[in-house]
Please model this.
Amino acid sequence: MRPLLLAVLSFPVVGAVCHPANAGTPAPAGQGRRHATVHEVLTDARLVGSTLDVTGHCLGYSTPTIAKGSPPLTRSDWQLEDAAEAAWVSGPLPQGCTATEPSPGPVTITARVARDTLQGLGGGAPIPRQYLVR
Model:
């Protein structure tokens, strides 16, 4: 009985090793990922947990705050702005943007959409907030 059980349990492992699921050539960087707008990142709950390419202007972290609430993860979180809306981004600044100087033009970053909850003001209901993590 034991040899039969061992054979049955090892069959899926042997099959997976001999026939990898992704035997093709990997897609070039940036291909196959969805592109989303800052507005979609902020408003579409279905994107939470997804890794996306997002384009906007890097505002750094010493400019006036447009994004909702305080930085979600660290004091160095920065804002990605597009069409007068901004999402917080936790992670390295993109090339051409510094803590004190916004990017001269739009930048595209790859980041994962995360979600937390902000305290409601004046005893109001808590508010869900989506942001990006690089």
